[in-house]
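Listing S7. Sequence submitted for prediction.
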Amino acid sequence: MKKRQVVLIMTDTTRKDMLGCYGNQKMKTPNLDRMAKQGIKYENAYTCQPVCGPARSAIFTGTFPHSNGVVTNCVPFGANVKTIGHRLTDHGIHCGYVGKWHLDGGDYFGLGSCPEGWDPDYWYDMKCYLNELSDQDKSRSRRMETAFDPDWTEGMTYAGRCTSRALDFLERYWDENFFLTVSFDEPHGPCICPAPWNTMYDGFQFDDNPNFQDDLSKKPFFQQLWAGDAIHQPKEEINHPSRALSLFLGCNSFVDYEIGKLLDKIEDLIPDALVIFTSDHGDMLGAHRLQMKNAAPYKEIANIPLIIKGGERGKTIRFPASHIDLVPTIMDYMGLPLPHLLEGKSMLPQIKNSGKKINDNVFTEFTRYEVDHDGFGGLQMTRAIVNEKYKLVINLLDSDEFYDLEQDPWEVENRINDPAYQAIRSKMHDLLLDHMNQTRDLFRGYQWACRSWRPEKKAAWANSGFTRQRENEEYEPRQLDYDTGLPMEKATRMKTTKDEKN
């Protein structure tokens, strides 16, 4: 019988245009480029929230951050939230996790403790890595300049040590069913990579494009705050060579080298395995005069690379795709029933037939960057819907955005008040509101509907008028109806009370 084997490879902060296979031939990523030729490359795949923890929460639970509770960095899962590792382990499938986790409520590095559902012999979050280093080397591991220290070799890097553990897992368990995650922190800062990668991109700058000149005058106010002094700088000062950019891109090529070792071992031992590559989010790198990531579904941070090997070969898919679909895809591949709780769809039919469309639209969101930080804009409530042609962004506490991605692929012209787009904008708005309802978004309310450009929407205290109870019946008893004390007949129903019935 054919073994069911899945390897999920992740990086942190890799933009689509940081891979050669996505069209930027200045990028040296031969191994991921090779994987793209052997599988399917997605052009319009989106993270569920462009910041580390929330993005990962969706990848590993199949539920949106607003559903699983990890709406910001450094907030843990609730006790009743189950990861894909837990679900597969309960079906007798061996699950290994090597690398960054960022989902236990600890700080950036984690708690060093293996959560339920994963093999503790291979657990290796960043706290485990730091525990192996002297205090002096712990500090060195957080300094960009360490990339030029001759003694900081590949074996001293987090990527190198993650790769070694992942290779050991593959060599030991190649003849059984398993799900292995290899989650690199690289190329995320401090971008430590040894020679030759540490100088590989010296003098590099991105090709000029219109969004380096976006003055943000028609964008939400918080984006103008986010830009800071850059809002007044000429494009030459925003898009320019720097030591930081060189090391960031060098680290990206270094982690591609590490991924190459995994791909070679997979090809040797388990050539029929399902292999998935993605990144949690990207980095603005000066686009729209912004840096890092935050409450904006711009393509630089939200439209992530996604490559899947194990189905059709050498195909490019432009239909919308989402991280929310990875858990149901993996469970479907393993031959398991899909829990009702999951909020995505299996992509397996599309992996086998690239002409099949799974999603008409996908969704992304934002709540805040990190609970520990006072800055980074603080609370920034955002919900967005995206398809192949358009992107609608609702910024609850600010002004909204609408982009025609065919006419304006750089997302410079905000068309939210353009009457020419009224019909499609309203249709997408209704779909977004329905998505918030169907996924029990804990922040839903009439304010998302009653926007200045949608005057026909009227505020109502009852909102849509429904009760929507949680269904997690693989691990919990069916919840009880408030009015009867008996198991609910329907999870979604019109809200009534005993007094109203009488």
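Caption to Listing S7: primary sequence and predicted structure tokens for the chain studied. Residues 392-501 form one domain. The chain has two domains: 5-366, 392-501.
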